Request: fold
Amino acid sequence: MATSTLQNISISIRLDDGVDSQGNTKTVGISLGNLNKNTFDADKVLAIANALEPCLNKSIDSVLKTEVSILTAA
Reply:
């Protein structure tokens, strides 16, 4: 049986960058970098993203969380 060990968590904020010629939404990203995997709090991440939004020249489209884990055989 395999085990999974969380190594790090990173957050990227996707900002609305208009639409392309086919009408698909375009986005650009800014990174909040790696966060402490032991104290990560999704509510706090969203609060930070929402607090930053007035400082940005684009509106927030989404907030992405990326987790990196090491898989090992038991």
Remarks:
- The helical segments are 42-52.
- The first helix runs from residue 42 to 52.
- The chain has one helix and three strands.
